[in-house]
């Protein structure tokens, strides 16, 4: 049962098609800024705060890992994707937030799920799902059946929603 004082831990970010591949949206949920990314059709979310010195991490670049065993032989590993901090270029794995510079340092990755309109509407009706406040609220008030929705959880996560 939800009380007036209960804080939501899951939020509707928007329709899947509102964040196309290669795009991101930075939203606010429970007073925290969170970046939601569509990387090659998979959705990821990360707290918009670098664990090094607090930079707005989600404003950084999205890059793949580059591997080289010998000079001149360079391969792009599209299976490993990193978010690059705009301050000092440290890279954080979008799957688990782990830093490739310092494996003991982690950015906060959050779970993202894709849910159907019926499921989202029912959870909204039960008060189990919050809406992201701000300029996008109007876009997500009407839940339509022909769309899937991006649902963000503030609990720790691994992996991205596909
Ligand atoms: S603040 Fe992000 S790497 Fe330094």
Automatic annotation (TrEMBL):
Pfam families, per the entry: Rieske
Keywords, ordered alphabetically: 2Fe-2S, Dioxygenase, Iron, Iron-sulfur, Metal-binding, Oxidoreductase
Gene Ontology molecular functions: 2 iron, 2 sulfur cluster binding; dioxygenase activity; metal ion binding; monooxygenase activity; oxidoreductase activity, acting on paired donors, with incorporation or reduction of molecular oxygen
Signal peptide bounds: none
Annotated Rieske domain residues: 10-121
Domain of life per record: Bacteria
Designated name of the protein: 3-phenylpropionate/trans-cinnamate dioxygenase ferredoxin subunit
Originating organism: Pseudonocardia alni
């Amino acid at each position: 049962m939800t009380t007036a004082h209960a804080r939501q831990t899951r939020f509707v970010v928007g329709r899947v098609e509102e964040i196309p591949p290669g795009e991101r949206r930075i939203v606010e949920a429970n007073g925290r800024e969170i970046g939601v990314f569509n990387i090659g059709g998979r959705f990821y979310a990360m707290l918009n705060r670098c664990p090094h010195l607090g930079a707005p991490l989600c404003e950084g670049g999205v890059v793949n890992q580059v591997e080289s065993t010998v000079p001149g032989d360079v391969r792009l590993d599209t299976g490993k994707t990193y978010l690059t901090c705009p301050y000092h270029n440290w890279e954080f794995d979008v799957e688990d937030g782990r830093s490739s510079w310092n494996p003991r340092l982690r950015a906060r990755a959050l779970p993202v799920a894709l849910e159907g309109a019926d499921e989202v509407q029912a959870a909204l009706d039960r008060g189990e799902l919050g809406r992201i406040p701000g300029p996008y609220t109007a876009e997500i008030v009407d839940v339509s059946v022909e769309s899937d929705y991006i649902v963000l959880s503030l609990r720790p996560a691994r992996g991205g929603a596909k």
